[in-house]
C-alpha cells in the first residue's frame, strides 16, 4: 500500500519501489454512487481523491469510472492510445458536432488523420499564420475604448474566433459570413456543453426553442463549411491559408521504415514504432475526402477558438488579481515593443508573457477532465481493467498537486523559468495532453495567446468594475463565466491597482 498524505494531497515518492494504492472514493450512496458530488462540486470532489489512492474508483449509478491520480499512471494511459482509446460521454457528444475529426476519432483512423493534418502545423506554417494573427489581434484590440466595460470572456471568444477563422479560411469569409460563423459557433458550443453535462439523449430531439436554435446553427455551420470546401475544390486559386494546406495534403509521407509516420509521433509515443493496423496503414497519395476535410475544419474551428479564448480570459483575470505580475508584464512589453503592436519576430523576447500564459494554463486548464476507454483487458496500478472500462484523468487535479507544484494555489509565472521548470515531474503538466493524441495545435495556441496578451498589455490595463470572487465553471471546458472588466489606457504610468479576490476550489 502506498503512503497517502493529508486530504487531497498526494504523498511524495521516496527512492524505494512504489506500491500502487487502489481504492474507491468515499461517500457513495446506493443507486447514485458519487454522481451528486461530481455534479455539484466536481473540482472539489476530484481534487480530494488523490488522498485516497493512486487509482480511485468513482461510481456513477451502475457504472464505475477510474480516476488516475498519479502522473505516472496518466502517462501510461496517454502513451498507449491503442489500449486507452478516446471514448466516453463527452467524446460521444462532440462527435455529434465535430464528426470524426482529429480530436474525436478513435485510434484506428487517427494515424491517417494526424499525418494529413500535420503539414498545417509545421513551425514554418505557424510563422506564416502569426502574421495573420497579429493583424486580426491589432484590429480587435484597437477598437476598445477607455472606460469601456467588456465581458472579457466574450471578448476573448470573439478575438480568438477572428484569429482562427482568418488563419483557417482567410479570404473565403467576408466580414458578414465570418460574423455568422462566429454566432453559429457560439450557439453550437453552448449546446455541446449542455449535452455533455446533462446527457438527456432523446430530450434534445424535442422541438424546444433551445433545441431548434442549436439545430439551426449546426446545420448552417455545416452548410457554410461544405460551401467553402466545394468552392476551394473547384478553384485553382491559392489562398495560402490552413485550408489550402489541409486540402493539398496527401497520405504519402514516408517514415523511417518506409511507412508514413506523423511528425513528432516517434518522439512523443513509445508505441509509435509498432506496426500500424490495416486501418492505420497509409493509403498512397490519398488526400482528405470532402467529409474528412469537413470534420477537420469543424474540429479546428471549435478546438481553436474556445480553449485559447478561455485560457486568455483566465490569464487576464489572474493579472488583474496580481498587479505586481501585471507590472512585470508591462515592463517586458514596453521594452520589447516600444509602443508598436507585437509581431511574430518578438515572440522569443516575450518570455515573461509566455510564462504568464503557461501558469494560467496550469491553474485553470481549459481541458480539465478527459476520459479514455480500454479496448482490451489491461492492468493499471496493478489493477485489472476489463475491456470497455472508463478511465478518467484530470489536468486540473494534476496541476494542483503540491508534490509537483509547491504552493499550487499561488499564481507564480516564475515557476516556468528554465532553472525551475526542469524540476516539474514528467507528465505533471498536461494542458495539451501527451503522446500521439497530444493537441496538434499547441504551438499555434501558445503563439496566438502570447501575441494577444502582449497586444493587450501594451495598450490596456483591465480591471473589474468592483471586487468580486471568480469561481471556475467546470463544464466540457473550464470557464471563468462572465468576466466584466473596464478598459483603462496605459498612456499614464502604472500605478497601484486593487487586487481582485479569486477562489480556486
UniProtKB/TrEMBL annotation:
InterPro entries, per the entry: Cyt_P450, Cyt_P450_E_grp-IV, Cyt_P450_sf, Cytochrome_P450_Monoox
Cofactors required: heme
Assigned keywords, A-Z: Heme, Iron, Metal-binding, Monooxygenase, Oxidoreductase
Any GO molecular function: iron ion binding
UniProt keyword Metal-binding present: yes
Family assignment from sequence similarity: Belongs to the cytochrome P450 family.
Protein name: Cytochrome P450
Organism: Streptomyces rimosus subsp. rimosus (strain ATCC 10970 / DSM 40260 / JCM 4667 / NRRL 2234)
Amino acid at each position: 500500500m502506498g503512503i497517502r498524505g493529508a486530504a487531497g494531497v498526494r504523498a511524495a515518492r521516496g527512492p524505494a519501489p512504489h506500491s500502487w494504492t487502489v481504492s474507491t472514493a468515499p461517500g457513495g450512496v446506493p443507486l447514485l454512487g458519487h454522481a451528486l458530488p461530481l455534479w455539484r462540486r466536481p473540482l472539489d470532489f476530484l481534487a480530494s481523491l488523490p488522498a485516497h489512492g493512486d487509482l480511485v474508483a468513482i461510481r456513477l449509478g451502475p457504472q464505475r469510472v477510474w480516476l488516475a491520480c498519479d502522473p505516472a499512471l496518466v502517462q501510461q494511459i496517454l502513451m498507449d492510445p491503442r489500449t486507452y482509446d478516446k471514448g466516453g460521454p463527452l467524446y460521444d457528444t462532440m462527435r455529434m458536432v465535430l464528426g470524426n475529426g482529429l480530436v474525436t476519432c478513435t485510434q484506428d483512423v487517427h494515424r491517417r488523420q494526424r499525418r494529413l493534418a500535420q503539414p498545417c502545423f509545421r513551425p514554418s506554417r505557424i510563422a506564416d499564420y502569426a502574421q495573420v494573427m497579429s493583424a486580426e489581434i491589432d484590429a480587435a484590440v484597437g477598437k476598445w475604448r477607455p472606460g469601456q466595460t467588456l465581458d472579457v470572456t466574450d471578448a476573448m471568444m470573439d478575438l480568438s474566433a477572428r484569429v482562427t477563422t482568418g488563419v483557417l479560411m482567410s479570404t473565403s469569409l467576408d466580414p458578414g459570413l465570418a460574423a455568422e460563423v462566429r454566432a453559429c459557433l457560439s450557439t453550437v458550443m453552448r449546446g455541446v456543453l449542455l449535452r455533455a453535462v446533462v446527457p438527456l439523449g432523446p430530450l434534445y430531439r424535442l422541438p424546444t426553442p433551445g433545441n431548434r436554435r442549436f439545430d439551426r446553427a449546426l446545420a448552417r455551420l455545416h452548410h457554410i463549411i461544405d460551401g467553402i470546401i466545394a468552392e476551394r475544390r473547384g478553384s485553382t486559386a491559392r489562398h495560402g491559408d490552413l485550408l489550402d494546406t489541409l486540402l493539398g495534403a496527401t497520405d504519402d509521407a514516408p517514415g523511417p521504415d518506409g511507412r508514413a509516420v506523423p511528425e513528432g509521433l516517434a518522439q512523443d509515443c513509445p508505441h509509435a514504432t509498432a506496426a500500424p493496423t490495416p486501418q492505420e496503414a497509409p493509403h498512397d497519395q490519398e488526400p482528405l475526402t470532402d467529409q474528412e476535410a469537413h470534420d477537420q475544419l469543424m474540429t479546428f474551428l471549435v478546438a481553436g477558438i474556445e480553449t485559447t479564448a478561455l485560457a486568455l480570459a483566465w490569464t487576464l483575470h489572474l493579472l488583474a488579481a496580481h498587479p505586481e505580475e501585471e507590472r512585470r508584464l508591462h515592463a517586458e512589453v514596453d521594452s520589447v515593443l516600444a509602443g508598436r503592436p507585437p509581431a511574430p519576430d518578438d515572440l522569443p523576447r516575450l518570455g515573461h508573457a509566455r510564462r504568464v500564459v503557461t501558469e494560467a494554463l496550469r491553474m485553470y486548464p481549459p481541458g480539465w477532465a478527459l476520459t479514455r476507454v480500454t479496448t482490451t483487458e489491461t492492468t493499471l496500478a496493478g489493477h485489472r481493467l476489463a475491456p470497455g472500462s472508463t478511465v478518467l484523468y484530470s489536468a486540473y487535479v494534476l496541476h494542483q498537486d503540491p508534490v509537483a507544484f509547491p504552493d499550487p494555489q499561488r499564481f507564480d509565472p516564475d515557476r516556468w523559468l528554465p532553472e525551475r521548470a526542469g524540476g516539474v515531474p514528467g507528465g505533471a503538466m498536461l494542458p495539451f495532453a501527451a503522446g500521439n493524441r497530444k493537441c496538434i495545435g499547441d504551438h499555434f495556441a501558445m503563439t496566438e495567446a502570447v501575441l494577444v496578451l502582449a497586444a493587450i498589455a501594451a495598450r490596456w490595463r483591465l480591471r473589474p468594475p468592483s471586487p468580486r470572487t471568480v469561481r471556475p465553471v467546470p463544464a466540457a471546458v473550464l470557464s471563468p463565466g462572465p468576466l466584466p472588466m473596464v478598459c483603462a489606457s496605459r498612456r499614464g504610468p502604472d500605478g497601484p491597482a486593487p487586487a481582485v479576490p479569486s477562489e480556486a476550489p
